[in-house]
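Supplementary Text 2. Reproducibility record for the structural model of the 336-residue chain.

All settings were left at their defaults, and a single model was retained for analysis rather than an ensemble. We include the record here because the model underlies the residue-level annotations in Supplementary Table 4.
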Amino acid sequence: MTLKELIPTEEEYNSLISSIGLLLEKARQKTFYQINQTLVQTYWEIGKRIVEYEQKGKEKAEYGSKLLDKISQDLKLRYGKGFSRSNTYLMRFFFTKYPKIQTASGKLSWSHYCELLNVSDDLSRSFYEKQCLNEKWSVRELSRQINSMLFERLALGKDKNKVLALSTKGQSVSSPKDMVKDPYVLEFLGISQEHELTEKEFEQKIIDNLQMFLLELGKGFTFVARQYRLTLNQQHFYVDLVFYHRILKCFVLIDLKIGKVDHNDIGQMNLYLNYFKKEEMGVGDGEPIGIILAAEKNNFFVEYALGGISNQLFVSKYKLYLPSKEELEKEIRKLI
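Retained model, structure tokens:
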């Protein structure tokens, strides 16, 4: 063996550094998970002891009770930060909502549970917890989905049994209908209702906020291209946004309309879908899905315009502001 063969190559050295880095990352993740799990269990135990003490003294559990104030003040005085009245109340509330610690997930942080405990409705909270685990939402993403009333929007149009299944299992995507929302909420674009937007500006805003747009679209979407060019009979057409859905294994085409959708828009999307079926589908791909995202739509018009179309084509509205919580909750109560 020559001296040159004994000296490690640069590639081998880089491989060593990468393998060490991987070990460190795994160790950090394991440590974070263990600390997080211990913190959640500890706060649950604190909540349990507060409730047991209250029950002995027949103390009512209002947020503003004098006992809760005193516990918070004394804990903060002895042990420092982390025992504000609101946080102490959440520890107590955490135990009342999860009387068995095994029903709380060790994969979610205390910050996640603080967001979840602010959801008063049990069905909604259960959904957000399951969906948070399914899609690995950060605390910020969880907060956004709660504020945008995701559960209520997905539940609209479903019967009671489907609403209950949604709350206990989270959203499962097994068909195009499961994937599509109506409406989509795009408040993160920061566009005022008064601003007269062009479709080009609208598209650019989405690209600038692509991570949040993917969050709103839901699990399984990967971005492919914007202004995807199709050429037919020497004529060029452009699809605003193209995605690929990893779960349904198909392309998803999105066309943006700043006004009301009309039959020409539906016909154009149908053309795009037929093109993708013939020219872009690969082995194992499902049929493409088309979504026309419009500011306004007339349900009767859309029903007639879509009649007879065999392609998977949907028309959804978008909103530039968060929906009314009272309005959505009223609709959900009607269902259940």
